[in-house]
Each structure stands twice: as C-alpha cells, then as structure tokens.
Predict the structure.
Amino acid sequence: MSNYTIISPVTEKPVQDIHLADVTETDAIILKAAHAFESWRKVNPGDRARILRAFASLVDSHIEELAQLEVLNSGHTIGNARWEAGNVRDVLNYYSAAPERLFGRQIPVPNGIDITFKEPLGVIGIIVPWNFPMPIAGWGFGPALAAGNTVVLKPAELTPLTAIRLGELALQAGIPEGVFNVIPGKGSVVGDRFVTHPLVRKIVFTGSTGVGKQIMRGCADQVKRLTLELGGKSANIIFADADIEKAAAGAPGAVFDNAGQDCCARSRILIQRSAYDKFMELFEVAVKKFRVEDPSLDTAEMGPLISSTQYARVSEFLPEGTPIAFQGSKPTGPGYWFAPTVLAPKDSKDRAYREEIFGPVVSVLPFEDEADAIRIANDSEYGLSGSIWSRDLARAVRVSRAVEAGNLSVNSNSSVRYWTPFGGYKQSGLGRELGPDALDAFTETKNVFFDTQG
Ligand code: NAP
Ligand code: MG
C-alpha cells in the first residue's frame, strides 16, 4: 500500500493524497475489465452510442469543475483547462457516432459471399503522461469504448485528479461497472503490468520516447498491439515572404503554451536569414508581453512547470554561458515558474537545440533558402508537428510535403483537431490517434467467407 501526495505547482503545497494501486489490485481490475468486455461488446450499437452521448453530456455539464481540478493539480491556465475538458466532451461525441457506423465490407469472391467485420480487441491499457491529462486520456478511451472494448487507464502519477473524476462521471452516465477503469499508480507498477498482463490486448502509450521504446520491447513478447505518441522537437519554419508580424505574434504561444510541456511545441524556430532581424525584433516584443501568471486568472497565457523535478530538468539545458537572446517574465514567490526563454545557438549541434526540453525554451536558427529549411527541419530524430509560414502557396505545399512530420500547419500553429489524424513520424511515435480512422486502431479486421455452393 502506498500513497502519492499531489503538490500544487503554483503554491508548492500538498493538495491531496492518492492511493497508488499495486500489482494485485491492478490484476483484479484488469480481470474485472475482461469480464465486462463480454457484455459491453454485445450492447446494441444504438445503445452504446446513447451511453457515450450521455457520458459526453455529463462531461459538458462538469467542464468548469474538471477545468478547476486541472488548474489545481497541474497548474494549467484556466482557459486551456476549459478547452481540455471540452475536448473530452467533443471526442466522446465524435466517436459516439461510431458504434452505429462500424462498417465492414462485402468483397466479391467466387463461389460465395465474403464479409469483413471490425471486432473489438478486448481490454485496452491506456497510459497517460502528466502534460495533458484530460485530452490524451480521451483520445484513447473515446474510440476504444466506441469500438466495444473495455479500458484500464493509468493516469500519470503526478496528475490523476481529472482522470479519477472522469471515471466517476462515466459510471454516473451509465457506462456499466468494469467497462472504464481508472487506476492511479506508478508507471513501473501499473503501467508495466498493462504490458505484461495477457488479458490487456493493446497498449496506447503517450509519453517519453525512452519509456515508449521500453514498452514496445515489452509488447513484443505477446505481439501486443501498440500505439505510441512520443516526444517532439518541432520546427516553426518562417520564410521571408510570410506575414512576419503574424508569425512573430503567434510564435510565443506555439512554444510556450502549457509552459512548453507540449509534445507539439514549436521549440525550433527556423527563420529565413533575410527576415531574421525583423522577426527577432517583433518576437522579443511578443515574448515580453506573454502573460506568465497565476493560472487561475482568465488573462494567464502560461502557468508554472509541473514539478520541482521538471524545473531542474529544464534548468539543466541552460548552463552558464548559454547564448540567451532574451527572456520573458515570471512571477516571484512560490511555484515552479520558468521565464519564457529564447536561445540563439551558433549552430544545430547545441544540446538545447536538438533535444526535447519540455519547458518554455525555444532556439532560433537562420536558414538560407527552401532546400536549406527542409534539410534543417528534417535533421532531427523526431517528427511530430511543425508550422510553415509563407505567402507563396506553391512553396507552402512543397515544404509541407517535404517535412517529415505527422501534423503540419501552414500560416497557423494549431495542430490538434479531433476530426483529423494525429501522430508522429520517426521516433515521435507509431500509429495515429483521432480522426475518422482511429477505430481501426481499436479493432481487428475479421474476414469471413460463406460458401454458397450448397
Ligand atoms: P513518461 O515518463 O514517459 O511517462 C508517461 C506515462 O508512462 C506515465 O503515466 C508514467 O507513469 C508511465 N510510465 C513510466 N514508466 C513506465 C514503464 N516502465 N512502463 C509503463 N508505463 C510507464 O513521460 P512524462 O514524463 O509523463 O511525459 C513527458 C513526455 O511525454 C515528453 O517526452 C513528451 O514529448 C511526451 N508526450 C508526447 C505526446 C504525444 O502525443 N506525442 C503527448 C504528450 C507527451 P508515472 O507517472 O508513474 O511516471
Ligand atoms: Mg517519467
């Protein structure tokens, strides 16, 4: 029996003690989810859809409560936290249309009829990181439940409060007992058990690339299905022909949102050399205006880092002598506050330029021409997201086809929409979440041939 004390990143004071499940408790819940699967998969499509809509509607009427919980637990700005809770509602609503549309195919074959079915997998193990506790959980459990699977979900040890509340709301909405189970616990205990337990048929993991690789190795033993959403070092590529004012005004939010603890953070700004000075001048004004303050204020654009450990990790990237171009502001007093920081490295060998920092630090590097921009952008082991700023449509098309990343935006920094697929190239991940095809990741295709020869 062990407990974890949640610490507020804003006050550094204890918030609540959480019981952490051990292996025996985890096994019991996995078994319960496996039993619940037998009946949940048989619920009529229309009824399953109706229950998911009821869940969405209950989340909708608890948006403010869920958002306040996230501010308390994670120090997210209240504006972001409301969006995050709303995203859970939207994802549930979107996939509530799926049970009634989980079509197979009828394929022409000789001597009979051939039909494919989309069958649910069984118990799905979802492992969630601390940076976006609500949306990342919902991207897993929404489509998983809609396809007829049951779910065991492990929130990050640091941020379990909203997941626990979502588990309660699910029951209240009529999701049957055992179908959606939230298990707070350690990654090395509960998360690892999802990987080794034979009744967990798929892992959906979001987190660091290191742990993702370990999970991938573990899944090999049982050829367990796996989706990975891992780290990033995304490029914000700005051509001289772009609306530089707009690109500069948007660049702080693109990397400092959620205090940079965002796998899609545009943490490398690549700016065409001829526009470098103009951009840096405008960018400095925008960074200094960026509001780092008490996240419960409606005006807050950035809160503190999640923990003292994360503060120490981010600080390590800025040793004495780091070429800091300029910094924004931060409050004084308690809280894991880190000022938005802009670096101007000499070249691309800099550690802060190459590695994922997961904090409010961005590196700016000039490039010469289109080919140079593509080469520099792709010179990374990651490939999650990125932005391209140009008024030349043909160039924007060429560059967006050439950049090796799963989610790009042109003249915009927004990469997440629940209607569209999300996921990474290279070491940023495996598989895709969200969008119309997410159900494929939570079903097996079964092919059945019916002989009609008599
Ligand atoms: P992490 O250490 O990899 O943890 C992620 C989750 O995995 C947590 O729930 C953690 O539990 C659990 N875990 C840790 N070790 C495990 C193990 N051996 N077996 C099974 N589960 C284990 O990552 P983090 O520090 O929470 O999050 C930051 C990282 O996530 C960043 O690198 C970021 O880029 C990445 N991320 C990626 C995306 C994306 O969509 N691509 C989204 C968000 C975050 P504990 O809480 O107990 O450690
Ligand atoms: Mg960790």
Q: What stands out?
A: The longest helix spans residues 78-96. The chain has a mean pLDDT of 98. Residues 423 and 432 are 5 Å apart (CA to CA). The first strand starts at residue 2 and ends at 7.
